[in-house]
Amino acid sequence: MEAFSDGVFAFAMTLLVLGLRDPTIGSTNSLFQGLLGEWPAFLAFGISFTTILVMWMNHHNLFTYIWRIDGPFMLLNGLLLLSATLIPFTTSLVSDHLLSADSGTAAQVYSGTFLFVALAWNLLWQYVIRHPGVLASTVSRDEIARTTRQFIFGPTLYIVSFVAAFFSGIVSLAIVLVVLAIYAYYAAITTIGRRTTESI
Amino acid sequence: MEAFSDGVFAFAMTLLVLGLRDPTIGSTNSLFQGLLGEWPAFLAFGISFTTILVMWMNHHNLFTYIWRIDGPFMLLNGLLLLSATLIPFTTSLVSDHLLSADSGTAAQVYSGTFLFVALAWNLLWQYVIRHPGVLASTVSRDEIARTTRQFIFGPTLYIVSFVAAFFSGIVSLAIVLVVLAIYAYYAAITTIGRRTTESI
Amino acid sequence: MEAFSDGVFAFAMTLLVLGLRDPTIGSTNSLFQGLLGEWPAFLAFGISFTTILVMWMNHHNLFTYIWRIDGPFMLLNGLLLLSATLIPFTTSLVSDHLLSADSGTAAQVYSGTFLFVALAWNLLWQYVIRHPGVLASTVSRDEIARTTRQFIFGPTLYIVSFVAAFFSGIVSLAIVLVVLAIYAYYAAITTIGRRTTESI
Amino acid sequence: MEAFSDGVFAFAMTLLVLGLRDPTIGSTNSLFQGLLGEWPAFLAFGISFTTILVMWMNHHNLFTYIWRIDGPFMLLNGLLLLSATLIPFTTSLVSDHLLSADSGTAAQVYSGTFLFVALAWNLLWQYVIRHPGVLASTVSRDEIARTTRQFIFGPTLYIVSFVAAFFSGIVSLAIVLVVLAIYAYYAAITTIGRRTTESI
User: Per the CB < 8 Å rule, is C10 touching B7?
Assistant: First the structure.
């Protein structure tokens, strides 16, 4: 189950590279000028890659709270994977349109996908905490409350980013980047150190 | 063996995203109009993704009935994987043609692939129950009969969907969606809860 | 190590689907006519998919003969993976050119890739049997001789297929198909039944 | 964690094949002439594939030095994976431009990516040796010093290759190839033999 989810996350991250394209095709620019002009594609690649990386770290942390996996959990986890799989598509949209007249729409679709991802996280988490057979009994009320707060934080800021996209695509992207930085910092400090297989 | 099959299912699910394409290429529509007009692609993406997800859940359930894997089992399992690998191709066909004059053909190919998938499941299952060394001895006659019925249900409805495609591509797709909903509900209630690696 | 190789095999198999393309793009044919005319693509997809599947089965069988993996083994195994990774490329070449004037060249490249794969197998196997620390001591002389014969059979027939491609691309493809059928049969009967993780 | 990194390396290696393209599209050359003219693509494919393979071998060797994985380690490991994921993109750039006027830029981007990869390795390693809880206590000062030297060697030579690209793309590529040969030789002799799962 975890291995399968890991596979989808790893694969979605690697597929992002297909959104980077040779800028000289159908253009008279030199390769150098073309690559400079493609900065939105590199920025979006970095944001999306790191977001999926942090999702994967959170996914592992989530599993330390799980005692038993059942059918509805698998389907809700599948919804989370579906939302993650959309990221390479919306990343290439924002890459190609951030500097065009469609900048706002592209940024709305991009932050909208992250909003979808964040809502899928909340659905999965709400299912877990309402089913004692799924949630490990060792998890304290405090841990549940803290994690619930952490999961509500995401959709809130992605709504801000979504609304901001009506005014400026670049501002919307900047907000997504800030959310990512906060989550990455949080994941870095809360991830519990684990012994490696080699050293056990 | 299970890990290898999991890998193919996970890759096939993630590759579906390549069927979603920037709608403004070769078009004068705005990005927003283009994405609205691409609804068959999003619908087909969702159906195909969830179908492979449910296949993967059933694949895991199947393995609880298996005692020993042998060569013919591996080849028949390979046929199942081959059928699943075709899904990203036929999904992009139905995405691109559902609203065109070729709607019927596209829906026939799409439901035909699911029919192929369902037949591969039946071949694999029939092989399993005819080989006592492969089937776990703990599986009761009742469980075998119930699972056999469950596997026959799929091809029957996919034939209906295939025939319906001669009249309307959208009706055919709707039937595929109904089959998926039934299988997803069934997978959700029958999947046996499993303890996670973390909690063992 | 095995998991990594499994990943590359599974991924190469799934990537084959990208060689199947919508036949109506840049054509006035109906979808139905187009798909019929694309039969070489479906044939090549099936051959390549099954060849990698059988490679994967043989790879697992090989590992039952291995006691210890070292650096040169990993590099030679990497050469085998490199040859397998080329298959989606040469499959799409033969799909697109089997019915054109370049049919011979395409079939040479296709059977040439399989020849490369078969030579990589032989290199890996020769390394294994010349290094007692790598080969498991439980493997008998008879088993070594039998496996060596099995590995020499492949390149021999692929050379025949390669030469045949100078006369007819389709005949060359037919020989590749026959080799595959022999190997698949052989893999089916020699694969040792293994208990699944579930039932242990 | 290792499995997830393995997945990204395996996917990135396999995705390289998408950089090999049918040379007859948009050209009047025969397939044979086209493939001959595509030699930079095959050369770059081989270099990139083997570089990621050696990275993967080194990644496994690194894990024998690790006692405990924590959050910052995961993020720095993610940076390494991000750099590896860029390789299929820069490989296709160098494939398409090595013989054009943009040869220098393409080779700078290509060796620049390997420089990025090598710097990510050094960052990860420096983090490991500065955190006793992460580094296994069994690793001697000598081993640390030797590995540190090995990791500094990479960026140094990639800077040479990057600078050489201002004069000649092909010379730059040749230097990358030499670095790879040295690392592959080193990985082959230092990889500690491991027993396989089968034989345990």
Answer: yes
